[in-house]
Amino acid sequence: MTAESDLAALTGLRSGKGSYYPQYRGAQERAERVLHALDVIAGALVRTVDGPETLVCSAAQAAREHLQADWVVFALTDGRLQSAGPRRLVLGPDGIPYLVDRVTGPPLPYEVTECLERIRDPETVAGESLLDGRHAFVPLVLDGTVVGAIAAWAPPGRELDGTDSAVLNILASQTAVALHNAALYENIATLLDRSEQAHAQARRTAADLAVRNAELTRMQRELGVVQRHRALDDERHRIARELHDSVTQAVLSAGMQIEVCRSEIPDSERTERLDLAKEMTRRAVEQLRSAIYTLNNSGDRHEDGLPEMLRQLGVVHEPDELKVTVRVRGGVRELPAEVEHALLRIAGEALFNVAVHADADRATVTLHYGAAHVDLAVDDDGAGDPAALRSALRASLDRDVDGHGRGLANMADRAAECGGRLALRRSRLGGVRVQVKLPIEEEP
Questions:
Q1: CA distance 129 to 152
Q2: DSSP assignment letter at 379
Q3: Exposed, middle or buried by CB within 10 Å (0-12, 13-18, 19+), for 415?
Q4: Are the C-beta atoms of residues 379 and 427 closer than 8 Å to each other?
Q5: Full strand arrangement of the beta sheet holding 135-142
Q6: Would the CA dihedral through 329, 334, 335, 338 be positive or negative?
Q7: From CA 64, how far away is CA 93, in angstroms rounded?
Q8: Which of its termini does the chain have fewer beta carbons within 10 Å around, N or C?
Q9: 362-384 residues labelled b (16+ CB within 10 A) or e (exposed)
Q10: Confidence class of residue 304 from pLDDT cuts 50, 70 and 90?
Q11: Distance from C-alpha of 360 to C-alpha of 348, rounded to nearest angstrom
Q12: Residue 279 to residue 123: CA distance in whole angstroms
């Protein structure tokens, strides 16, 4: 039935003359019945937000109330409106809704069962409204596609007319749209609930990550302190080994020379041996002064950064005739523990060599922080020869016969372990420059 024919069936009046009074009375009754039916339909369709089940029950109750029907069937076609529900509902003479797909209910008449199965099958469901005496069948159409149907059986004596068909068509078309909207509303509500849960979980995760990040930062700080303690402990052990292998032997040798001088020997030989003992004693004193600071330094000052430790290291290797200066360039920042440890050991070994072997008056330690690397250079104004030192380094790397030159080899090994290399060249001060360049990760 078209919209024009529905409107004509609802109106039904062609003239206002007195001869049409019976027709007027019939039209008035139909209009009152239609208005009541539309009011009931409007009340049913506003239940969209209450969920599809409440909406379907309200639509079926509206059809039953308008037709005073014994049986009302609401069913959706298989494969249509997949997220909507309930799929099949029946109202019996008692008006109690019966969800066919969920529970076992009272036995149904054959025509009701047959109608349910016909609506379920998309191949057999009718696409046109059917009004046959006491039986009405109205399809649910959404976007030109039949998605289900409403069927009703009026009681004996209640003949269905065009007004009833028009009301059922309005109910069916609006119910299809409302049912689709209700399904969308439920899906949106479900997605909203899930998004809120995900947001709450994300906030909890963020708070947990903040706590863990704070713990990691604190542990990293503590680990840096431990690594600096370890670096100075290793330096203390190195100095102890140096004292054992060099200072002790020098003092013992000087004592032996003095002991020989106490015996009966020529004066010329006695003078030569005393000069030799004096030289050995002087060297031992230099080595002892080089180690005094580290050996006597307490552990409560180990939390200083690398620049401060280099300044303290310069004091360690500062005999009377050697002045050590420490320069820092670039933005000072925390370095990996292994890089910091290697730089401290290399600087200590280089300054020790300057103090003992270079006969220098000045030494400069330069620490340069770059974006992706850190440079360390130790310059002196002594009498050292870079070419001779490079030859000694190559010889010590190839073979180690008498232990000489291991200091240079140790510096080269430490630089290589951190991904850099050791360079020996002429310094602008006139002596030797010992330089290492170590890569570090770029700051984010």
A1: 12
A2: E
A3: buried
A4: yes
A5: 97-99, 88-91, 71-76, 145-153, 135-142, 130-132
A6: positive
A7: 9
A8: C
A9: bbbbbbebeeeebbbbbbbbbeb
A10: low
A11: 16
A12: 116
Q: How far apart are CA 181 and CA 314, in angstroms?
A: 81
The residues near 17 (Cβ < 8 Å, ≥ 6 apart) are none
Q: How buried is 390 (Cβ within 10 angstroms: 0-12 exposed, 13-18 middle, 19+ buried)?
A: middle
Name every residue whose Cβ is closer than 8 Å to that of residue 352 and which is 6 or more positions away in sequence. Answer: 242, 290, 317, 407
The residue with greater pLDDT, 406 or 322, is 322
* Residue of 216, 147, 124, 138 whose CA lies nearest to 171: 138
Question: Which two tokens mark 360?
Answer: 């220098």
Which residue type occupies 411? M
- For residue 141, list its beta bridge partners: 146
Pairing between β-strand 373-380 and β-strand 145-153 as defined by DSSP bridges: unpaired
- Lowest average pLDDT, out of 67-71, 177-181, 384-388, 428-432, goes to 177-181
* Predicted confidence (pLDDT) per residue in 80-124, tens digit: 877 776 778 888 888 778 777 655 566 788 888 888 888 888 887
pLDDT tens across 201-242, in order? 999 999 999 999 999 989 988 888 888 888 777 777 666 655
- pLDDT tens track for 213-223: 999 989 988 88
Structure tokens at 433: 């420059």
Tokens of 17: 């003359």
| Global pTM value | 0.40
Whether the CA torsion 19, 38, 159, 10 is positive or negative: it is: positive
Let me know if 107 is exposed, middle or buried by CB neighbors in 10 A (0-12, 13-18, 19+). Answer: exposed
Q: How far apart, in whole angstroms, are the C-alpha atoms of residue 210 and residue 151?
A: 62
β-sheet bridge partners, residue 139: 149
- Identify the residue whose tokens are 């010889």: 395
Strand segments (E) across 36-160: 71-76, 88-91, 97-99, 130-132, 135-142, 145-153
